[in-house]
Amino acid sequence: MNEEAMLKIDAAIDEIENYVSGAHRVPLLEKVLVKDDELFHLMDKLRQELPREVSDAMEVCRRRDEIIGAAQTESEQIIAK
After folding, report:
1. What is the pLDDT of residue 1?
2. 74 band by pLDDT with thresholds 50, 70 and 90
3. Whole-angstrom Cα distance, residue 73 to residue 54?
4. Which residues contact 1 (CB under 8 A, 6 or more apart)?
5. C-alpha to C-alpha distance for 39 and 43, rounded to whole angstroms
6. What is the CA radius of gyration of the chain?
7. C-alpha–C-alpha distance, residues 69 and 49, integer Å
8. By the 8 A CB rule, do 49 and 9 touch?
9. N-to-C CA span, the chain
10. Other CB atoms closer than 10 Å to residue 49's CB: what's the count?
């Protein structure tokens, strides 16, 4: 992942943090009130900044066992030859 992409992701996360930390606090409940449409908008911006490499890495993690099994089978076939 390149540095520019990381900076954009960090900026989007900072924007979400700033929005939540600046939201109105509910007295006595230790909670904040946020406008859901604004929070969803900020989260969409973050998703747009996530580069393709992150999506690819997440897919590899999801398919990890399948990929390892296929590699082991292939290595066994190579050794058998």
Report:
1. 64
2. very high
3. 27
4. 51, 53, 54
5. 6
6. 21
7. 33
8. yes
9. 38
10. 17
In this structure, how many other beta carbons lie within 10 angstroms of the beta carbon of residue 15? 13
Structure tokens given for 59: 């897919």
- Using one digit for the tens of pLDDT, what is the confidence trace for 7-31? 888 999 999 999 999 999 999 998 9
Task: Give a three-class secondary structure readout of the chain.
Answer: CCHHHHHHHHHHHHHHHHHHHCCEEECCCCEEECCHHHHHHHHHHHHHHCCHHHHHHHHHHHCHHHHHHHHHHHHHHHHHC
pLDDT in tens, 35-60: 999 999 999 999 888 877 788 888 88
Tell me if the pTM is above 0.70. no
| Cα–Cα dist 6/51, whole Å | 9
